Amino acid sequence: MSDEKIILTGVRPTGPLHIGHYCGALVNNVAIQNAGGYAHMYAMIADAQGLTDNFDDPEKVRRNVMEVALDMLAAGYDPTKTTMFIQSAVPELTELTFYYMNLVTVARLQRNPTVKGEIAQKEKFANGLPVGFLTYPISQASDITAFRANIVPAGDDQAPMIEQTNEIVHKFNSIYGEVLKPVKIVMPESSLAARLPGTDGNAKMSKSLGNCIYLKDSADEIAARVKSMFTDPKHLRVEDPGNTRDNPVFIYLSVFAKPEHFAAFLPEYANYEELAAHYERGGLGDVKVKKFLNSVLQETLKPIREKREMLARDTASVMEILRNGTERARAVAAETLADVKRAMRLNYFD
Ligand code: ATP
Ligand code: MG
């Protein structure tokens, strides 16, 4: 029993999901979901965590709960296989966080490289950092351990969170007895898919940075976003040699373009390597490459968008999926919380 696989994934409802989520998380998660061989799979919509840097805009978080639920279902989450739930509606998670806070130092939180980078990027924190934001890795440890998850599929920005979770697990177990399980992150095989850059060339496509191509974007929106993408700034004339390595257009192609896309839209090249080699040696223009990327993304996103449009006609059913999932999730989290409190000698009325 103790070796059974329990999987937890999460997204913050801070905006609709983008193609970075798609290649960094959704494709992997849906494949894991459909392959089976696990005891439970949970997908959390982390609204409470979303508020840690959007506390002044509760409507945004609320609205995006439905947006990300639609994105997840459109990308292939199946509520009969995966328990989809809303974080804030499982208050047991908050209580766990409060107990875990004793096990983590402020210095350790300040060293978390993902959190550090996010703080530096957020102008609104220039005059003061909310405690809730600094401590969100602790709340993630609660989310993971509450469901006894031992596998978390995620992009590479989550590696420091998983490391901190395991530190909390070990510290808790060594003080209070063996209650919590360590967890492993599962990242996409391609390091480019594990951190897809933004359309502006920023190292990470992120809802909070607005450098995204969204799963819900219309065909025209996709075309416009691809057209205005950052490429190699030194590739001025078609005949100039180009750089493909820090060039988001090429990075997206290496992640999304399949041999059948080449056959259908750019048959003079058999694959990504041939196209990239031509750009590197010079003689291939950005307009042609962007046109191809647009065709690839249109093909990839069209079925998702169509399914999403269908689901969006009945949001009441989607809410019902979340309500049922949340009820199930809450029962599991309550069991873990009871185990934790027993181990901490907080079970006075048992
Ligand atoms: P925010 O800017 O609000 O933090 P986000 O775009 O980082 O939003 P999250 O909801 O924080 O999205 O992340 C959800 C999941 O998607 C995580 O597993 C994360 O690792 C993954 N992910 C997010 N952005 C990318 C990206 N650009 N490339 C690959 N994976 C990503
Ligand atoms: Mg994030």
| Spatial order of strands in the largest sheet | 1-2-3
CATH architecture descriptor of the largest domain: 3-Layer(aba) Sandwich
Along the chain, the helix and strand elements come as EHEHHEHHHHHEHEHHHHHHH
How many distinct helices?
A: 16
Bound ligands, each once: adenosine-5'-triphosphate, magnesium ion
Indicate the CATH class of the largest domain.
Alpha Beta
Kindly report the CATH topology of the largest domain.
Rossmann fold
Question: Share of helix among residues?
Answer: 40-55%
* Percent of residues in β-strands: 5-15%
Oligomer: single chain
Q: Count the strands?
A: 5
Output the radius of gyration.
22 Å
Question: Structural class, please?
Answer: mainly alpha
Instruction: List segments where confidence is low: pLDDT < 50 over at least 5 consecutive residues.
Output: none
CATH homologous superfamily title of the largest domain = HUPs
Shape: globular
Q: How many separate structural domains? A: 2
Determine the N-to-C terminus distance.
Answer: 26 Å
Describe the structure in your own words.
The mean pLDDT is 96. The two termini are 26 Å apart. The chain has 16 helices and 5 strands. It has 350 residues and is mainly α. The protein has 2 domains: 6-196 and 315-343, Rossmann fold; 219-309, Tyrosyl-Transfer RNA Synthetase. Helix 11 (219-227) runs antiparallel to helix 15 (286-312). It is 55% helix and 6% strand. Helix 9 links the parallel strand 4 (151-153) and strand 5. A 3-stranded parallel β-sheet has the order 1-2-3. It has a two-stranded parallel ribbon with strand order 4-5. It binds adenosine-5'-triphosphate and magnesium ion. Adenosine-5'-triphosphate binds at residues 11-12, 14, 20-21, 24-25, 154-155, 157-158, 194-196, 204-208.
